[in-house]
Backbone:
């Protein structure tokens, strides 16, 4: 290759064309992200899971709660007895271009003849709902508590942090189990008045998810409170905060306009990394029978239901 051709190839290179133009930090981050094939694959997988949860009726052929005792314990891709008229009555894909999917159970069926594929897809919706809502509750409580503690300083900060330290010494899982047992006991007693009556109504309308939201989100804010306090302490002595005080800005204005916009970014990243833990905890509660109410599907409950089959 002649020197002229080599020079032309270098000048036509996309990266060299961008050289000197300058890229924003976001463009640099996106460029590095695209180079990480594992990260790209992970994002694609997460997007597919989220889409499956959002459009669960599209991806699930059957009603997740419909029982078909004549075809219980069916194996994967095993057909069922047409004489039960199961397809005509319960298949979402019946008389559609996907009608072929109504003659088999993709992932088999459980002891009650319910389609495991449909229950798994709807269980994805339950798990993601718990993860996102619990993370939001934890973020809000921890952010408010930690911001007040860090901004107030002095004795107020010391007392609030000692409360957090004390709660850190209490085992969280037994507390969550006791709270869940209490809420379920109140629901079985049929309390219909007052605040508890409202909570029970909300819990029934969500298939048992509301009490899980409360139990997990209301107890996992401790780490978020510490992180928020640390962020506030690192920012509250900055020059722009001192300048806001110098022009007479009130504390509430400083927190809303100057502290929170700078603090919230790292906290969102930290809380997003905690979502898998919330999903795992919900599955654990459902596995031991303290999760969502039947017939609402949950991954933990499905593992519990299939465990006897594995043993046998």
Residues:
């Amino acid at each position: 290759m002649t020197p002229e051709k080599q020079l032309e190839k270098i000048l036509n290179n996309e990266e060299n064309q961008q050289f000197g133009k300058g890229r924003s930090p976001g463009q640099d981050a996106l460029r590095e992200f695209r180079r990480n094939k594992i990260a790209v694959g992970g994002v694609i997988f997460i997007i597919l899971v989220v889409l499956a949860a959002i459009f669960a009726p599209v991806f699930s052929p059957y009603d997740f709660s419909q029982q078909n005792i004549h075809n219980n314990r069916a194996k994967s891709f095993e057909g069922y007895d047409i004489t039960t008229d199961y397809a005509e009555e319960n298949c979402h894909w019946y008389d559609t271009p996907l009608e072929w999917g109504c003659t088999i159970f993709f992932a088999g069926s459980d002891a009650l003849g319910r389609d495991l594929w449909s229950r798994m897809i709807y269980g994805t919706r339950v798990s993601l709902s718990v993860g996102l809502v619990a993370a939001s509750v934890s973020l809000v409580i921890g952010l408010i508590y930690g911001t007040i503690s860090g901004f107030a300083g002095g004795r107020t900060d010391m007392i609030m942090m000692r409360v957090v330290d004390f709660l850190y010494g209490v085992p969280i899982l037994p507390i969550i189990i006791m709270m869940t047992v209490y809420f379920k006991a109140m629901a079985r007693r049929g309390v219909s008045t007052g605040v508890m009556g409202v909570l029970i109504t909300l819990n029934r309308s969500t298939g048992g998810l509301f009490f899980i939201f409360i139990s997990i989100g209301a107890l996992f804010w401790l780490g978020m409170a510490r992180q928020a306090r640390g962020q506030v302490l690192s920012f509250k002595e900055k020059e722009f905060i001192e300048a806001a005080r110098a022009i007479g800005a009130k504390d509430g204005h400083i927190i809303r306009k100057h502290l929170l916009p700078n603090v919230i970014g790292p906290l969102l990243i930290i809380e997003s990394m905690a979502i898998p833990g919330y999903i795992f905890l919900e599955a654990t509660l459902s596995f031991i029978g303290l999760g969502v109410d039947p017939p609402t599907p949950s991954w933990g409950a499905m593992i519990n239901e299939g465990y006897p089959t594995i043993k046998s």
